[in-house]
Amino acid sequence: MTVTTRIVDYEQGGQTYEGFLAMPEGSPKGVVVVAHAWGGQSEFEQDKAKLMAEWGYAGFALDVYGKGKRGETNEECEALMTPLASNRPELQSRLAEALSVAKKEAGTDNAAAIGFCFGGLSVLDMARTNMALKGVVSFHGLFGAPGNTADKIGPKVLALHGWEDPMATPDDVMDFSKEMTSAGADWQLHAYGATMHAFTNPHADNPDFGTVYDAGADRRSFAACQDFLKEVLG
């Protein structure tokens, strides 16, 4: 399948953000928003947007930091992420705007979202606040509740989790399960044993920090994601 791509600049609150749109041949079955890890939108997320287009969806890699704001070192990434991780309403506002832009640019309201690490937390917040999408997939996402989870969550939720992830402990998993159950969500959690954080990122190789690529979990998680997207988007 031929995939076409283009950069989509958009404005919110006086700041410019840089989206990346990948379109399949013909009309897309829906649009899948791709939320980035703590370093900001990168080639990794753009490749996932292209993968969504190969699956027949429009893929839109969003940006919650602002055009040109990207992190290289752990310290730079943390400095970018922390203000939004500690101000979830602002994060959610930026996510909602990105979803609106993605739908407009893709020409469809049939939407889902996937995200990685900090992006996993981001898409969970999209579900928690009942943004207008069918479902979300969190890959090795952070689980901390934002404090404004809806009484009833509408979008379906799939969390793909490494059981040895030091950034999302078994206690965090239990808290997440209670949160989802209390909100009546249609939710799933797939936990991969002996698997750490960032297991889908081939460049992750820092066991002391807790980030290690795992080819098996990578393959299994994307198979689960594809099945889920077929369910919620068609």
SSE blueprint:
Layout: E1 4-12, E2 15-23, E3 31-35, H1 43-54, E4 58-61, H2 74-85, H3 88-106, E5 111-116, H4 118-128, E6 135-139, E7 156-162, H5 170-182, E8 187-192, E9 205-206, E10 211-212, H6 215-233
Parallel strand pairs: 3-4, 3-5, 5-6, 6-7, 7-8
Antiparallel strand pairs: 1-2, 2-4, 9-10
List the defining traits of the structure above.
234 residues; alpha/beta; Rossmann fold; eight-stranded mixed beta sheet; two-stranded antiparallel sheet; 10 strands; globular
Give average pLDDT, whole number.
98
Can you give the helix content as a percent range?
Answer: 25-40%
Count of helical stretches: 6
Described by the principal axes of the CA atoms, the overall outline is: globular
Strand neighbour order, sheet with most strands? 1-2-4-3-5-6-7-8
The helix-and-strand class reads alpha/beta
Q: Any idea how many domains?
A: 1
